[in-house]
C-alpha cells in the first residue's frame, strides 16, 4: 500500500521527495494517509486520500465543489484579516499537471491537502469549552457559506439526509436479508421503527421541508474540525465532501450527536451512552454565536429535534449496512456496524428526552446573540 500511496503522492505538486507514508485519521469512507516530504532539509506534511468512488461517483463534481469552497473561504478570511489564513481553510493541492485530483492506472482517484500544523481533530469531546468552540466554528462555517456565489454546489450524494429514504433502505435490507443477520437484529429493527415514528410526530409542527435550504456541511461530526493544539480554537473545518444544499438541522444534529456524549460511536457498554446537559447547552450557545443572525425562527424552533434526528438517521444507516454485510462503512471487527447502530439508537432516545432542556438552551443562546 505504502508504495502505491507514494507513487500517487508524487503526482501532486508537493515540495521535494516523499519520505514517509502512514495511515491517518478515523474516517469510515475514504483511505487517508499522512505523507511527509523533504526538500533541502525541510520537512512538510500532507494528507493524501484515495477516494471511495463507489460512494462519491463523480470526483470531478466533488473536487469542483472543494475548489469553489476554498476560494470562497479564502476571500472571506482575507476580508476579515484573520491571521494564518492557510491554517483556517482546506484547499486541495493540485497535481503537477494542474488538476484537482489524480487517477492512477487502476482507476484509483487521489487527492492531496496540506496538513494544518499544530492542530488536530478529536474523536471524543473533552468538555463544555471544547463543545462550545467546535459548535461556534461549525456555525460560522454555515454563516460564511451563506453568500457563496451561485450556482448551488453539486449534489455529491443524492438524498443524503432523507430519513424516509434511509428507512426505506433499511426495510429493503431487512426483507432481502442477504447475509442472514435480520433475525438477530430484531430488537434494533424494532427500536429504529419506533423511533422513526416518534420523530415524525415530533417534527410535524416544524416540517423540514418548510425550513430554508442553505449550503451546509452535512457531516459536521466533532472530528471533522481541526482544533488548535495550544489555544483550542476551532481552526479549520475539514471533510468537505458532503458540503451542499441542506438544512442547518443536519449540521447542528451531527454536532449534538457527536458532541453531547462522551462515549465513542462504537461503545459496547451501552450504559455509558449518556447525554450531558452541560455539553448540550455549550453546543447550543456556540452554534447560535457562530451562525449569528443566520438562523430564522422556524430553524430555532426545529433545532432541538436535530440531534435525535441525526442520531436516528445514523442508527438506521449503520443497521442497514450491518444487514447488507458491511458494504458502506469500514468496519474493524465483526458486528461493528451493529454496535454503532445500537449506540445511535440509544442516543436518539436519550436526546429526545432532552428536547425541552435543549429548547431552553437555544432560546437563551438566541437572546444572547
Ligand atoms: C461517515 O467519513 P466519515 O467518517 O467522516 C459518513 C457520515 C456518517 C459518519 C458516521 C459520506 O463520515 O455521513 O455520519 O460516517 N459519511 C458519508 O460516523 O457517508
Ligand atoms: Mg470525516
Describe the structure.
This protein has 369 residues and is an alpha+beta fold. The protein contains eleven helices and ten strands. The strands form three sheets. Strands 1-2-3-5-4 form a five-stranded antiparallel β-sheet, covered by helices on one side. A three-stranded antiparallel β-sheet has the order 6-8-9. The longest helix is centred in the N-terminal third of the chain and has 22 residues, at 59-80. The chain is globular, with a radius of gyration of 20 Å. The model has no long low-confidence stretch (mean pLDDT 97). The site of 2-acetamido-2-deoxy-1-O-phosphono-alpha-D-glucopyranose (GN1) has 11 residues, from loops. Residues 27-29, 55, 219, 221, 224, 239, 242, 265, 314 line the site of 2-acetamido-2-deoxy-1-O-phosphono-alpha-D-glucopyranose.
Keywords:
369 residues, alpha+beta, 5-stranded antiparallel β-sheet, 3-stranded antiparallel β-sheet, 11 helices, 44% helix, 13% strand, globular, binds 2-acetamido-2-deoxy-1-O-phosphono-alpha-D-glucopyranose, binds magnesium ion
The biggest sheet amounts to:
5 strands, antiparallel
Query: Using DSSP, what is the number of strands?
Result: 10
Approximate helicity band? 40-55%
Overall body shape:
globular
Bound molecules: 2-acetamido-2-deoxy-1-O-phosphono-alpha-D-glucopyranose, magnesium ion
Uncertain stretches of 5 or more adjacent residues: none
Structural class: alpha+beta
The DSSP helix count reads 11
Radius of gyration: 20 Å
The largest beta-sheet arranges its strands as 1-2-3-5-4
Order of helices and strands: HEEEHEEEHHHEEEEHHHHHH
- Beta-strand content: 5-15%
Q: Would you tell me the overall average pLDDT?
A: 97
C-alpha end-to-end distance: 50 Å
Amino acid at each position: 500500500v505504502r508504495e502505491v500511496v507514494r507513487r500517487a503522492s508524487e503526482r501532486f505538486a508537493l515540495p521535494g521527495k516523499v519520505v514517509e507514508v502512514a495511515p491517518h485519521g478515523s474516517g469510515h469512507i475514504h483511505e487517508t494517509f499522512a505523507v511527509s516530504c523533504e526538500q533541502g532539509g525541510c520537512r512538510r506534511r500532507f494528507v493524501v486520500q484515495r477516494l471511495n468512488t463507489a460512494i462519491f461517483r463523480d470526483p470531478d463534481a466533488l473536487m469542483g465543489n472543494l475548489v469553489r469552497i476554498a476560494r470562497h473561504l479564502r476571500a472571506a478570511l482575507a476580508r476579515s484579516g484573520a491571521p494564518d489564513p492557510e491554517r483556517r481553510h482546506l484547499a486541495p493541492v493540485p497535481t503537477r499537471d494542474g488538476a484537482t485530483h489524480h487517477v492512477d492506472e487502476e482507476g484509483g482517484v487521489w487527492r492531496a491537502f496540506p496538513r494544518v500544523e499544530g492542530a488536530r481533530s478529536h474523536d471524543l469531546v473533552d468538555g463544555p469549552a471544547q463543545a462550545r468552540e467546535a459548535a461556534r466554528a461549525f456555525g460560522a462555517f454555515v454563516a460564511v457559506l451563506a453568500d457563496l456565489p451561485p450556482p448551488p454546489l453539486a449534489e455529491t450524494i443524492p438524498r443524503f439526509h432523507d430519513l424516509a429514504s434511509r428507512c426505506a433502505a433499511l426495510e429493503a435490507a431487512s426483507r432481502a436479508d442477504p447475509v442472514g443477520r435480520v433475525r438477530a437484529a430484531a430488537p434494533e429493527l424494532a427500536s429504529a421503527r419506533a423511533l422513526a415514528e416518534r420523530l415524525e410526530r415530533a417534527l410535524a409542527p416544524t416540517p423540514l421541508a418548510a425550513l430554508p435550504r442553505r449550503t451546509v456541511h452535512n457531516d459536521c461530526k466533532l472530528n471533522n474540525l481541526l482544533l488548535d493544539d495550544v489555544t483550542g480554537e476551532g481552526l479549520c473545518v475539514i471533510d468537505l465532501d458532503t458540503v451542499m444544499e441542506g438544512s442547518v438541522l443536519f449540521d447542528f444534529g451531527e454536532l449534538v450527536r457527536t458532541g453531547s456524549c462522551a462515549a465513542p460511536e462504537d461503545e459496547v457498554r451501552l450504559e455509558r451512552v449518556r447525554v450531558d446537559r452541560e455539553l448540550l447547552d455549550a453546543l447550543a450557545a456556540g452554534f447560535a454565536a457562530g451562525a449569528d443572525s443566520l438562523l430564522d425562527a422556524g430553524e430555532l424552533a426545529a433545532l432541538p429535534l436535530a440531534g435525535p434526528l441525526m442520531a436516528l438517521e445514523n442508527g438506521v444507516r449503520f443497521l442497514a449496512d450491518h444487514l447488507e454485510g458491511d458494504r458502506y462503512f469500514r468496519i474493524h471487527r465483526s458486528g461493528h456496524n451493529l454496535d454503532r447502530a445500537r449506540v445511535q439508537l440509544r442516543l436518539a432516545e436519550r436526546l429526545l428526552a432532552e428536547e425541552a432542556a435543549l429548547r431552553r438552551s437555544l432560546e437563551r443562546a438566541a437572546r444572547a446573540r
